[in-house]
Amino acid sequence: MNITITTPALLFPAISVLFLAYTNRFLAIASRIREQHNLFNKTQSPVAKKQIESLRQRIRFIIAMQLLAVIGIIGCILAMGLIFYGVQSYGNIVFGISMVFIVLSLLASISELLISTKALNIELEDMEAK
């Protein structure tokens, strides 16, 4: 299958939205970490302590999401260059690999979402216990 130079280019609008979502997640988690830090310093709350590992895991996944997406974007740009210079077969391969990285980024996003849900359940359980 031969792809044209416009095929990888079609991903660029989606990629900007993806990065906006990832950046918003990062900013939200950074704010949450600061809140938990203040809460833990004031109260030594066991709930805040339970959240620490969850927050660490979420940060790792957000970093992985962003790195995988960047590698995917670079791959798309490289694929466009290869196609432009007439090296179609390598362009196809690089484009396929870049799609794998973007899919891995999205899977990391799902994992981060699941961890986030567990963290919210910890908060809900604490409210129910009181």
Question: Layout of helices and strands, plus pairs?
Answer:
Layout: H1 6-9, H2 11-43, H3 46-84, H4 88-129
Rg to the nearest angstrom? Answer: 20 Å
Percent helix: over 70%
Number of strands: 0
SSE run: HHHH
Strand count, sense and barrel status of the largest sheet are: none
Uncertain runs are none
Structure characterization notes:
Helix content is 91%, strand content 0%. It is mostly helical and 130 residues long. The protein has one domain. Helix 2 (11-43) runs antiparallel to helix 3 (46-84) and helix 3 runs antiparallel to helix 4 (88-129). It is elongated. The mean pLDDT is 86.
Features:
mainly alpha; 130 residues
Give a quick precis of the structure.
By secondary structure, the protein is mainly alpha-helical. It has 4 helices and no strands.
